[in-house]
């Protein structure tokens, strides 16, 4: 048993010597890695500051450009919408409410001109549910496009910050 203990002790001593021999270069490599990480963090912080200053300096123009970027699409939308048969039918249907309103207004004026008590009711407006459904669908898809744009902005920012000079 003493031989086994002696052999194990020699092996531990050898391994300890090897570990001490390698610990110096390992510590140096770890220090280099830590220094490189710290330098990268400083570099990224500087780039982030530069990016943030650029965003602050240009946000108004970029926001105006973004706000106006939908103008052509809105015009195309109205043009396409006007060409749709279902839209024309819906407009015709809704115009009946306006026609009724004009008739009621004319009758109220006539009663007032004749100095009669106005018995003609006020126009009652009913919102159409189809518009709410369309708007919900539009807002949902617009929010998705907006989220995609936000992801693109995040990617641009990250690419800028990560870029090496």
Description:
With 165 residues, the chain is mainly alpha-helical. Helices cover 87% and strands 0% of the residues. The chain is elongated, with a radius of gyration of 38 Å.
Summary keywords:
single chain; 165 residues; mainly alpha; 4 helices; 87% helix; 0% strand
Helix/sheet category: mainly alpha
Tell me, what's the shape?
Answer: elongated
Could you give a short account of the major beta sheet? none
Please mark out the parts with pLDDT under 50 across 5 or more consecutive residues, or reply none.
Answer: none
Q: What oligomeric state do the depicted chains represent?
A: single chain
C-alpha termini separation? 66 Å
List the helices and strands and how they pair.
Blueprint: H1 2-68, H2 71-83, H3 85-113, H4 129-162
Compose a concise summary of this entry.
By secondary structure, the chain is an all-alpha fold. The chain has helices spanning 2-68, 71-83, 85-113, 129-162.
């Amino acid at each position: 048993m003493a031989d086994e203990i002696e052999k194990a002790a020699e092996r531990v001593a050898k391994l300890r010597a090897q570990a001490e021999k390698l610990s110096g270069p390992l510590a140096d490599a770890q220090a280099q890695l830590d220094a490189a990480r710290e330098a990268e963090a400083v570099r990224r912080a500087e780039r982030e500051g530069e990016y943030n200053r650029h965003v602050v300096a240009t946000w108004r123009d970029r926001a105006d450009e973004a706000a106006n970027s939908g103008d052509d699409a809105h015009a195309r939308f109205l043009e396409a919408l006007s060409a749709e048969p279902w839209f024309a039918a819906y407009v015709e249907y809704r115009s009946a409410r306006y026609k009724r309103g004009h008739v009621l207004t004319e009758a109220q004026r006539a009663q007032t001109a004749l100095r009669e008590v106005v018995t003609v009711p006020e126009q009652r407006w009913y919102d159409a549910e189809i518009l709410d459904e369309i708007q919900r669908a539009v807002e949902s898809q617009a929010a998705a496009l907006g989220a995609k744009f936000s992801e693109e902005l995040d990617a641009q920012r990250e690419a800028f910050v990560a870029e090496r000079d």
